[in-house]
Fold:
Amino acid sequence: MSRRGGQSPESLRPFGDAHQAPVRWRDRLLAWVFSVSVHLMVFTALLGPGAAPQSVDIRLPLSPILISLVDLPEQKPPGPPEATETESRAHDNAVRPAPPRPAASAPAPAVVSRPAPDDSDVLSEAQLAGAANAGEGGIAGGGGGRGCDTAGAVQQALRRDPLVRTAVEGANRLGKAIMLWNGDWVRSGQQDGKGLSAVREAVMWEVAFAPEACRNQRMHGLVLLSLADGDTRFAIGADDWRWSDLLGVRRLAPDR
Structure:
């Protein structure tokens, strides 16, 4: 084939590069498809069901937590074997309850010996035989003082004085016959003073204010003075006596 107008053989080839252009576009298309496929595979792997779930911020209500603080015993360093064993025994003895003690028998009640009551001042009916009652006459007297009723006056004074009855009740002598004076005032039971102090004072007060002739009237034997109940009686007298003797005064001059 001859050359026309000086053109090269390639330029004279029909359609020139028409065959190579579709091939290039096909290669580019395949490259884009491959690239898109690869990216889709990567995104699918990241966002697919097997992918790690996204973190979700879920805030739950928090309830209070109680915290107890306990003081732990201080740990002592281990001591010698003997000291450790001694402490262990002491701890066991402290923790172990003591064995119950046998019930002790109740001690026998102490017997307190009480002295027998002193009733030496209480007179029996036999001892009162022959005694004269105040205010009933028959009271033996001699010498001066005729017309005196000193016994009756003293008896009325005792009945009027409430302290007399109180003293008798305190001495547990109510309703009894009491030896009040037999040459000396007689102690009644456990009383501190002689002659029941309230009774002695009432008698001495009445005798002290009696007429002198009546105070010095000679008397013989016992005279009974009674309280209002009639059962509580006081015995006063001796073989030979005067009312003034109850005051501690004795008349030395003989009667005329």
Summary: The longest strand covers residues 233-242. Confidence is low (pLDDT under 50) at residues 1-5, 7-15, 252-256. Residues 132-247 form one domain. The helical segments are 20-47, 81-95, 150-160, 162-170, 197-208, 212-215.
